[in-house]
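Follow-up to my post from last week.
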Amino acid sequence: MLLLSAAILTGTSSLASAQPIGASVYATYGTTSLTASNTFEAAAGTSRKSAPGIGGTVTGLWRGLFVDVAFTQYTLDAQRVFIDQGTVFPLGIPVRITMRPFDLVGGWRHKGRSRFSPYGGAGVVFFQYREDSDFATAGDDVDERKTGLVVLAGADVRLMRLFKAGGEFRYRAVDGILGLGGVSQVFGDDQLGGLSFAARFSVGR
Amino acid sequence: MAAPHVAGVAALLYSQGINRGSAIEAALKRFAVDLGPTGRDNEFGFGLIDARATLRGLGVAR
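User reply:
Got it. Predicted complex:
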């Protein structure tokens, strides 16, 4: 038993030493297709939004295990509307929508001998949603924070010793913000988030 | 004296872009403050019109 434990420990340490702990920071730029498409089409005229993001990754915690944090900010210019029998009547009152997802993800990165490195993971998203409109009084505007799920999958290629470029898909789902009132309740859209594809540029090991 | 108030708000809604009669009626009913028994009743009708709420319409989440 003692010999078996020693063998496992030796094996683990040799594998861990094969992939030393590394850290990198990255910037992303991508487009998100929002889940509540009917709601955002009605209020903002679009359900797709491009946005920059930043993040950081610590890799090689145990074999290919990594931890990743990412922050993105979406801003949309919309307007208040009235909806009757599927017809949207814009009322000309501007609404500024700000969405700030902060992702905390754990995942697995495959590091072979090639420069190509695919990865995937899942975690939690801390989502802030703000809605500010003109002529608002106390209680009219919205500032909500909820927690949801995020999954990601991507791949990158090492271009230079410390520089990598790649792309990734990221899906977020957050309940409890939409669907309780306003346009989202009319359309029955109760989930915030969506599917993103972003280009990712990393610096670090 | 309800009719002049309702007509006034209806005119404001029309000027704001709701240009269909049935939609104006739906907006007035949706944002009216219910009075008396729940829902429409013979004494208060659909309730008291709320001009501000009606003219503000709907946001995304609220």
